[in-house]
Give the backbone structure.
Amino acid sequence: MPSIPERMCDAVEYNLRWQQWKMKTKETINQVQQWPSTVQAKNVQDVLRILCGCENTIVAHAETDVEALVAVIFYAHPLATTEELFSSSRYILTLFSEQTHQPTITTQLLQGDLFGALESCANLDWWLLTHFTDLLRLSPLHCNLVPALQFTGEEGQYIQARLWFALNYANWLLDYEATRKCAFDYMITCGDRGRTLLTESVARIPLEDKDALDTLWQYYEREGMKDAANKFYETLAVRTIEKRDFTAAIRYYCLSKNQTKIEHTFELALIDYIKSGQLLRLDCTKDEFSAYFHGERAQFFFNYSKMRDLYLADQHEEAAKILRQLLIAESSPLEFLPVVFLEGLCLLEDDTTWFSVHDIEQFKACLRDLDEIDAEEGYSVLEEYMIQRGYNSIADIYDVKSTFIDMVTLTLDRYPVS
C-alpha cells in the first residue's frame, strides 16, 4: 500500500499508484474467494476489503462511529477535500442510525457540524470550549471556518467566537477567589475587549481580596494601561466610602493624586459624623500622605477632631484656641460653622476662654456669609445634626435657622470680650 504523500504536488502520482494497488488487491480478493469457505478465508477477505476502503466492511467491523469514520477517511478517502469528508461522514453515520447514541464532538466535527461541536463543548466545560476554539485556530481549515467562528453584535460588529467564549469564561472565573488571577490571564489575551473587562474588574473584586487587587494593578502597569490604573484607586475609593471606610478612601485618592476627591472625602466624613454622631479617626494617614492634606476640608476636619480630643482631655484652653480659629477662619466651610458653634458653647461659657471684639466680628461676618446662602443649603447640616440628636420639635429648615440665629445673638450679646 503506497504511503500518503506529504505534499499535494505528489497527489497525482500517489493516486495512480493507489489505484493500481487497489486493482491488485481486488484480484487477490477474488483469488481468496476461491479458497474453501472457512472463517480464516473470510477474515482475510475482510482485511483486504478494509485496506481497499470498502466502507460497508469497515462499518461492519468498527466498534464505534468514530472508529469507522477514521478508518474510512484513511483507507477510502486519503486525499478527500473537506466537503467530501463531510459527505462521507454523514453517510457512514447513517449506517449507525439504528444504534441509540449521543453525538460526540468528534462525530459532529467530522460531519461539519461546527456549531453542534461548540455546543457539546459548552455542555461539558467552558474551559474546553475556550481552548477548543484555540485548537481550531491552529487547524489548516481555519480559513474556511472563520465565518462560522464569528458572532454579530447588536450594532452589526463582528465578535470572534474565541473572544466571546474566553471573555465569558473569564467573567465566570472572576467570581471565585481561587480563579481570579486565571481570569486576568484570559482577559489579557482578548485584545481591546479583554482590556475593557480587565478595567471593569476592579469594581467586582471583593475589597478583602488584596492579592487579587494587587495582581490586577500589576497587570495595568505591565500592559501600560494608564487610564485603567488611574481609575483603579478611584474605583476602590468609591467602594470603601460606601462601607464608611473613609480612611481607606482617602488613602486610595491620595494614591491616585486626586486632590479634589480627597477634599470631598473629608467633607463626607464630616457629614457622616453629623448623621451618626461618630467622628472617625482619619489621622492615621497623615504621616504617609501629609502633602495632600493642605486643603480647607482636610484642615478643618483635623482641627475639629483635635478640638474635641483636647476638650475630652480637659485641656479647655487649648481646645478654645482651636475653636476660635475654626469660627473665624475664612477657609472654614460655612455649612459646618453652626455645628462647631453649638459644640463649642461649653468653651465659650468657660471663664478661661476669651474672644476679642475682632474675633466676634469676624465670626458674625462668617454668619452673614452663611445667611446669604439659601436656607436649605446653608442650614441643612445643622438640621440633620439636630434631628439625629433628638430635637424633633424643630418644624422646618427655616425654624432651624431662626433658632440658631437667636442662640448666637443671645450668646454673643452677653459674652465678655477682651
Q: What stands out?
A: The radius of gyration is 41 Å. The first helix runs from residue 11 to 32.
